[in-house]
Design a protein that fits this description.
Order of helices and strands: HHHHEHEHEHEHEHEHHHE
Strand content: 5-15%
Helix content: 40-55%
CATH architecture: 3-Layer(aba) Sandwich
Number of strands: 7
Shape: globular
Radius of gyration: 20 Å
Distance between the termini: 43 Å
Number of domains: 1
Number of helices: 12
Strand order of the largest sheet: 3-2-1-4-5-6-7
CATH topology: Rossmann fold
Largest sheet: 7 strands, parallel
CATH superfamily: NAD(P)-binding Rossmann-like Domain
Length: about 350
């Protein structure tokens, strides 16, 4: 039960409880508005751990890949299915020490993959994510590597392959931004955003693909984490808009080329997601009010995005190439933000 409890704690951190100020410090300070959201997150996390039938505990205690618990429900016609579709796979997730990247890394680990956690700067959050992954019985390596530095990327892949084995899943998630208008953005800030959010994606995709083909392997999956900013020219985000638009077209172009080599490239487009970065950009009040206006009455969580990445990286999506999975709770189903609609659905 100790390991199962650790898995539950990991899930709570992934959902934001106890780590993000949104559901941690502010909830503890007595914010009545956040209490229902925190309670819902805790309940959802507990339900997840309960529904797994203890498969994390089985995998860790027996020192082997987790398998479907005998108590877990089996969908009709899917008797051979197990909830760890990525067992034996190795993933590199850029920018995975916190936020969306951390959620993706944890979901990949839940699904059976060993993971390279990439970060820049403070190693503390990366070590915590690595600890959570290890508690699931998976192998993990953390690597400080600026994705805009090609030599650093080569060293990161060298380390991942040395410790974990051949990498067959790449998630390009790392990005930065200043979020200012065209008139206010400094040239240096604009260049930094493009170096990380566009050139960094190129470096990682090319390095991953070249290594796979040199080894004669054709089981690769690349998932790029996109954004509504790739299509929408949002105000006061000129650097981020351009980086995300360029990276999305890069991903589609890569999909068109690499599918002939047996490497699938797809995109996951998140909606507005509760992360540390968003908390730095917006006030708590803005996030709470925006969550209440969403069709599903909440913002996206990192785990929501991670689940989509798991599916695209698995054999279940073996015939899916160049696709975009939108994980936004219907936020942009009408192109414009859904809460701006004057439809009959009401508030």
């Amino acid at each position: 039960m100790r390991i199962a409890s650790a898995a539950r704690s990991s899930r709570l951190r992934q959902l934001g409880v106890g780590s993000l100020p949104l559901l941690g410090s502010t909830a503890r300070s007595g914010s009545a508005a956040l209490a229902p959201l925190a309670a819902a997150a805790v309940a959802g996390a507990a339900a997840f751990v309960h529904s797994t039938g203890g498969r994390q505990q089985v995998g860790c205690e027996q020192g082997q890949a987790a398998t479907r618990s005998s108590t877990a429900p089996i969908p009709k016609g899917r008797e051979g299915w197990i909830p760890t579709p990525l067992t034996g796979r190795v993933a590199v997730v850029t920018g995975s020490s916190q936020g969306i990247g951390a959620g993706i890394a944890l979901e990949l680990a839940y699904a059976g993959a060993d993971v390279c956690v990439n970060y820049v700067g403070d190693p503390g959050p990366a070590r915590q994510v690595a600890k959570d992954i290890e508690q699931l019985g998976r192998k993990v390596v953390i690597r400080d590597a600026d994705v805009s530095n090609r030599e650093a990327i080569d060293r990161m892949f060298d380390e991942a392959e040395r410790v974990l084995g051949p990498v067959n899943i790449l998630v390009t998630n790392a990005v930065t931004s200043t979020r200012a208008s065209l008139l206010e953005t400094k040239v240096g800030d604009f260049e930094k955003t493009l170096n990380i959010g566009l050139f960094g994606v190129f470096h990682c995709m090319q390095t991953f693909s070249q290594r796979m083909l040199a080894a004669g392997r054709k089981d690769g999956s690349i998932v790029h984490i996109g954004s509504p900013h790739a299509k929408g020219p949002f105000k006061d985000a000129i650097d981020y808009n351009v980086a995300k638009a360029g990276a999305e077209h890069l991903a589609r172009s890569a999909a068109n080329e690499l599918m002939w080599q047996g490497i699938r490239v797809n995109i996951v487009q998140p909606g507005w997601t509760y992360t540390e970065g968003e908390l730095r950009l917006y006030s708590q009040e803005v996030l709470d009010k925006s969550a209440a206006m969403m069709p599903l009455r909440r913002l996206c969580m990192p785990a929501d995005i991670g689940k989509a990445v798991v599916w695209l990286s698995s054999a279940e999506a073996a015939y899916v190439v160049g696709a975009t999975i939108t994980v936004d709770g219907g936020q942009f189903i009408e192109t414009a933000p859904s809460w701006a609609s004057s439809g009959r659905h009401g508030a």
